[in-house]
């Protein structure tokens, strides 16, 4: 059977941290769907369409990766795709509590779905979409954290 895993998230916008996790996940699974959440609590900087577009661009050369979106619960999307594995990234200890809580809630909702946590390369272990948006708004150079086209897109948004 072909293996398929789902990597859900907001990806607002995609960073080198996300890309690192995607590449690592491809060592475990033949196919990976990066699933962009359309209903996120916080007001996103990028529309769903823009987030998908940037992810497609960032994963263009990666075999087995597709980018899709979902509405509602990630576990329902995983089930709809007949998959049973969800990938999440763990940066710092600070991610742990939230991710642990969510994984256990998801397990209660859907006992057959397993969450696999992956650690990024050290150099990206502190990179977050939220922080790079804040840093960019204060004039920081974010080129070490996101691909160039993302950096340009963030700059364009901040000018508006
Ligand atoms: P969320 O889904 O919580 O809105 P994101 O879209 O930013 O968060 O991230 C999706 C997933 O990728 C989450 O599991 C998050 O912890 C993980 N992630 C984000 N940035 C990194 C990074 N730099 N290294 C490893 N994992 C990351």
Describe this structure in words.
It is built from 6 helices and 5 strands. It has one domain: 3-Layer(aba) Sandwich (Rossmann fold), CATH 3.40.50. The strands form 2 sheets. Strands 1-2-3 form a 3-stranded parallel beta sheet. Strands 4-5 form a two-stranded parallel ribbon. The relative contact order is 0.20. The radius of gyration is 15 Å and the shape is globular. The N and C termini lie far apart (48 Å). The longest helix is centred in the middle third of the chain and has 17 residues, at 93-109. With 160 residues, it is α/β, with parallel strands linked by helices. It binds adenosine-5'-diphosphate (ADP).
Question: Which helices and strands, and how do they pair?
Answer:
Elements: E1 4-9, H1 16-25, E2 31-37, H2 48-58, E3 65-70, H3 74-80, E4 85-89, H4 93-109, E5 114-118, H5 129-137, H6 148-159
* Uncertain segments: none
Number of domains: 1
Order of strands, main sheet, comes to: 1-2-3
Share of residues in helices: 40-55%
For the terminal residues, how far apart are their CA atoms?
A: 48 Å
CATH superfamily: HUPs
The major beta sheet can be summarized as: 3 strands, parallel
| Alpha-carbon Rg, integer | 15 Å
CATH class: Alpha Beta
Number of helices: 6
């Amino acid at each position: 059977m072909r293996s398929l895993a789902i990597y859900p998230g907001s990806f607002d916008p995609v960073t080198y941290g996300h890309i690192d996790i995607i590449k690592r996940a491809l060592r475990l699974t033949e196919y990976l769907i990066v699933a962009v959440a359309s209903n996120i609590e916080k007001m996103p900087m990028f529309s769903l369409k823009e987030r998908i577009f940037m992810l497609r661009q960032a994963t263009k050369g990666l075999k087995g990766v597709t980018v899709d979106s979902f509405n509602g619960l990630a576990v329902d999307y995983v089930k709809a795709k007949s998959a049973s594995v969800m990938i999440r990234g763990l940066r710092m200890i600070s991610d742990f509590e939230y991710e642990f809580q969510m994984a256990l809630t998801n397990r209660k909702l859907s006992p057959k779905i397993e969450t696999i946590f992956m650690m990024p390369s050290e150099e990206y272990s502190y990179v977050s979409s939220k922080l790079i948006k804040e840093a960019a708004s204060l004039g920081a150079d974010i080129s070490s954290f996101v691909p160039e086209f993302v950096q340009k897109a963030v700059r364009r948004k901040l000018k508006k």
